[in-house]
Amino acid sequence: MNPVMAANLFCTAFLVFIGVYCMLVSRNLLRLLIGVEIVSKGVLLALITAGQAVGRMGAAQAFAITAVAVEVVVVAVALGLVVRAYGAHGSLDVWKLNNLRG
Amino acid sequence: MTHLLLLIILALFSMVAVMAKDLLRSAVALGVASVALTLVFYEMSAPWAALFELSVCAGLITVLFVSAINLVRGSEAFLLEERHRFWALPCFLVALGAGLWLFGDHVAPSLMPAGDAADSTPVGSMLWGPRRFDLVGQICMFLSGVLAIAAFFGPAKRPPLEKGPGSVSTGCTPATFDYQEGK
Amino acid sequence: MNSLFFVLLPALAAIVNPFLRRPGSRLADVLTWLVLLVGLAAAGLGGPGPGQGDALSALMLATIYLISFLVAVFSAFYFGDEDPTVAGKRASFFSLILVCTAGMAGVVTTQDFFTLYVFLEVVAVSSFAMIAFSGDRAGTEGAVKYLFLSAVASALILLGVAALLLTSGGVSFAHLMETALDGTRRPGVLLSVSLLICGFMVKSGLIPFHGWVPDAYESAPAPVSALLAGIVTKVAGVYALIRIAMTLHLPLLGGDYSGLSAALMFFGAVSIVVGAVAAMKQNDFKRILAFSSISQIGYIVLAVGLGSPLALVGAVFHLFNHATFKVTLFLNGAAIERATGTRDMSRLGGLGSRMPWTAGTSAVAFLSTAGLPPLSGFWSKLIIVVALWQGGAYAYATLAVLASTLTLGYFLVLQRKVFFGQTVPLTEDVQEVEAGLLMPVVLAAALMILIGLYFPSVLEPLIEPSGSLAALTSAVSGGTL
Fold first, then answer.
1. Which residues of C are less than 8 Å from A100 in CB distance?
2. Residue B119 and residue A55: Cβ atoms within 8 Å?
3. Which single residue of A84, A95, B146, C109 has CA 20 to 30 Å from C143?
4. Hey, is A93 helix, strand or coil?
5. What does the alpha-carbon distance between residue A49 and residue C158 come to, in Å, rounded to a whole number?
6. Which candidate in C4, C8, C98, C122 is best for mutational testing of the B interface (most B CBs within 10 A)?
7. For residue C332, what are the CA distances in angstroms to B55, C223, C231, C327?
8. Which ipTM score applies to this complex?
9. Which candidate from C84, C128, C188 shows the least CB-CB separation from B171?
């Protein structure tokens, strides 16, 4: 494994960890979404790194582009949902989302 | 060397995005991290992915986040989170780095690249050729996104009731979106 | 029939639907029904052409269109004009059902993991929208929980795709199979498949990733719960697990992938037990059904983990059966809620005399879930238990049988409490719901009975989906490929 690929994979691991940590520790719904975005970045980096390692940059870029397009719709809908949840509950606190029992 | 620097900037600004107290600062830090990722992609000879990452993630998603943050501005919207947990993040990251460094050799065999799959079709012919079905998927994705937003923010009116006097309207008031005072 | 047809037909109808909106009209509903019926007929007549999806895809397509059709019919009658959930947004609701169907069709007809991911996101987004459709507190809460767990799962799946690209040079099922057959690449395959399996396990709602299931099912509008439990969770998660098992042919390379096999079987078994036990402690019948779903999906995953041809046949059959059970139970639950105004079972009683059709179809569904002969559920569970026994997993086979008894036990208690016995004051003057709401459940119950009775002649079309596995098995062991 050449050093560049190793560095990229290191960075992917860091990004995924940062994102997951953010999702676990935050109370604010919007910050949770930022965590999701960071994990996404890590995964995109992993995709392109994989493509470069096997020599299929065309395919890897196609995957990355499609993944980005999909991700933007998911983020837009997620933001819409969070704003709607704010309207219904009056707060963005994750810990307050316990009305459904069990 | 530039590559390593860009990766460091990427990880650093992601960390800032998580640890910043103000949500707007988080969103901007996320945007900067996206720009760093763009440059990383460009350096890895993935110019088209870089372009998309720049315009969509660094641009569009940052704008979406900032709009959402402004939409929920209210006295209760921002909480005092446990800041000490956020400041623990760098310690965890150092531990992660050390762990990966020490045990990286064990993980390496599962990351051996396949040697015989090299294929130099450019992105365009790839997207419109073998991966054409993904484009159908993208269309469906946009469709569901539009319908979802329409479902969340659509007209919440109740159609006029034709019943006689003394009837009670069914159900409760749909949640009206009132971002001035929450609910 | 081109696989594109199955995806584009509902998608186009979904685009047309909002333009048919006129107050008081039912054009959108009718268009949805027509489209879904056409799709069902097309799937029944042959499914996607060769090279675009095999017999398993055809069976899944038929199931998807069938369940979506039943839910669409029910929703049309369930949501009156004044219903606050869909007031003014009726056409969007039916469009969402159509888009969800299109997404699911895409998931089951694709031949590679990345396209699977893309269509999986389509299904996820339309699910969020449907769960939170009414915009009330419960709906948004369930949708938010589902959203975040689904986002994690999607990230895991995409990471698995990246790992697959790295270690196999490609992301299609064929690439995975080739790489798996090549013994030297085991660690790479293990990494990518583990990531993928973790992602799909979260999507299926297996223990320990089941956190979103009870809340999402409970808080969604009633027909949406039926759609989710009936087909979405299965297509999103379990179908992919079946595909992975088929591609890796677990029993063949038993030694190499026994760890994966054991892990899947373990989580499946845990889900069976925890789901069954947790279901007994609930009072709200939607939550009971949610935990029961987790339990039944545990059966499917247990069989998938074993991976032998017979086990896969059992898994696929149980998948189809469970779709019919859950859609019946959730739709009936919605009918009961509509008629009595409550979902709390401790306050219901004696509904059997007041709502005979609902009670009858629920009874059929309960008994079939518990695996009573001669209903369809009995056969699928039998196949799974026999496959487990033949595969040497005696402990798991016994567990499966015992859990069935447990399921039968609490369903009988449920049936007795809610339907039999004396009518309590709440249910004194309850009426049976209208025919439109009953038609889907009667159809599903009829299917359960017919498939159970005519099981031998049904086996042939079901052997086929795993037939490709059997053919590959013999080819590989014969030294040719």
1. 138, 141-142, 214-215, 218-219
2. yes
3. C109
4. strand
5. 13
6. C122
7. 48, 10, 16, 8
8. 0.94
9. C84
* Total domains, chain C: 2
Q: Which residue has the tokens 């079987």?
A: C265
Of the three residues C109, C137, C166, the one that is the final residue of a domain is: C109
Full pLDDT tens readout for chain C, 481 residues: 477 888 888 888 888 888 876 666 677 777 777 777 777 777 776 655 544 456 778 788 888 888 898 898 888 888 876 677 776 778 888 889 999 999 999 998 888 899 999 999 999 999 999 998 887 888 888 899 999 999 999 999 999 999 999 888 888 888 888 887 776 777 788 888 889 999 999 998 888 888 888 888 888 888 888 898 888 888 888 999 988 888 876 654 456 677 788 888 899 999 999 988 888 888 788 888 889 899 999 999 998 888 777 888 888 889 988 998 899 989 888 888 887 777 777 777 777 777 788 888 888 888 888 888 778 888 888 888 888 888 777 888 888 888 888 888 878 877 877 777 766 766 666 667 677 777 888 888 888 888 787 777 777 666 666 555 554 444 333 333 2
- The nearest CA of chain A is from the CA of B158 a distance in Å of 18
Domain closes at, from C109, C134, C149: C109
Q: B9 with A12: CB under 8 angstroms?
A: no
Both tokens of residue C219?
A: 């808080």
Residue from the list C4, C84, C133 with its beta carbon closest to the beta carbon of B136: C4
Residue C99 sits at the chain B interface (C-beta within 8 Å): yes
- CB interface of C with B, residues 161-200, below 8 Å: 163, 166-170, 179, 185, 187-188, 190-191
Shared-domain flag, residues C287 and C306: yes
CATH topology of domain A3-96: Helix Hairpins (1.10.287)
Instruction: Inform me whether the C-beta atom of residue B158 falls under 8 Å from chain C C-beta atoms.
Output: yes
Co-location of C184 and C245 in the same domain: yes
B154 contact C CB<8A: yes
B141 phi/psi in degrees, rounded to 5: -60, -50
> Do C385 and C400 touch, CB atoms closer than 8 A?
yes
Q: Which residues of C have a CB under 8 Å from any CB of A?
A: 114, 117-118, 121, 124-125, 128-129, 132, 135-138, 140-145, 147-148, 151-152, 154-155, 158-159, 161-163, 165-166, 169-171, 214-215, 218-219, 282, 284, 287
Q: Within its chain, how far is the Cα of C59 from the centroid?
A: 13
Chain A, window 41-80: residues with a beta carbon less than 8 angstroms from a chain B beta carbon: 41, 44-45, 48-66, 68-73, 75-77, 79-80
Contact B111 C88 (CB under 8 A): no
Domain ranges of chain B: 1-73, 126-154
Same domain, C76 and C150: no
A38: nearest Cα among A10, A55, A17, A64 = A17
For chain B, how many helices (H) and strands (E)?
A: 8, 0
CA–centroid distance for C472 within its chain: 27
Q: Are C96 and B144 within 8 A, CB to CB? A: yes
CA distance B103 to A60: 28
